[in-house]
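Q: Two folds, back to back.
A: First:
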Amino acid sequence: MSSLLAFTLAFAFSFVGTIPPGTLNLSVLQLGLENKLKAAWQFSIAAALVEYPYCWIAVNFEELITSTPTIVSNFERIGASVMIILGLLNLLSLRKQRIKRVDAKDYGFSKGLILGILNPLAIPYWIGITAYLKSQHWLTIKNAYDLHAYLIGVVLGALTFFILVAYVANKASILLRGNSFIKYIPAITLLALGIYGLLYSLI
């Protein structure tokens, strides 16, 4: 039962954690817009697989990092500040981001693997999520089965989001290209949650 719960929690938080725009999901989005679903599949599988070792590192270092009293006492403020910073960075990066044509030959398993490895933000994300789930007594990793169920959930959550993005982009490319407001939603959401969390932690 604990393995199933670990898988479910990891899947859910991995899916949600992949939403903010970045190199990986923008690449998948571009492939979907260009009708290159096979390349999107290959890219997505490779990028999602990288989450496995990164999450393994995060789980193993979570206890060491969160045992620091300063971090524990300021955990909410740190998390809120990170959300605000990510939101601001997303807004700034949107000025440079353009949905453009991509060559499917340049995007496949190897490209997804390389870009996934160059995206180590997964480590601090999973350190924070794992610490939070444990503090709420939702997650208990007692043995190797629980650990690998958790890691597999992380991989499948990210993969599901990537594939969903590719197919939605493929089916609704006109909407995604024409509506400039859509791309601002993740950044605005991050900022709103970050500001709320920061104000709540100061009360």
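A: Second:
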Amino acid sequence: MFTGIIEEIGTVIEVKNDKITIQSSTIMSDMVLGSSIAVNGVCLTVTEKANFSFSAQISPETKTKTTLSGLCVHQKVNLERAMPVNGRFGGHIVLGHVDGIGIIERIVEQGKFSLWYFKVPYEICKYIVPKGSIAIDGISLTVIEIIDNIFSVAIIPSTRSNTNLQFLNIGNKVNLETDIIGKYIERLLGLHYQRPALSENFLKEHGFLE
């Protein structure tokens, strides 16, 4: 589990087939093989480790559902280690499981601060609420408002200068993870949930039918 407090901006130094290698320093201090690292909000497992870099594999599912498939060498990414049991809960519950990809629609500068507007898939709009939490490329942020399928957040100078937001602009894509609490409530109450139909072949294959 993560909290959406970015620890470091890493640099992609190699993208090869299903493996990505990222240069970093701060998060390397206690990293071991098998560690969970959020890369732009996507939970990845460390498979290789060097003095100042680590590698992780990207599954076909992750490539399909996140922006990691579009990463290239020299690109900057947000990095966060999994939260230790005795750590501070600085942001909100972030699992590193991306719900959808958003697009930056508008950036309004307000002195040192800025308002950012994101266009999101309609299927995740129901989980986005004013004053609620959302993770954008792994950054824990607070929703100001949502109208139709566009929501806004306020970015303070510290967040912009210490995350990959400083390198993004209108039209760029970002990973979105909505608050897990809303999803649990929906499932427990049976809202909008339909039991998936299981084919006869599936039931036979798993021993439910003879």
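Q: And?
A: Residues 8-81 form a domain with the Elongation Factor Tu (Ef-tu); domain 3 fold (CATH 2.40.30.20).
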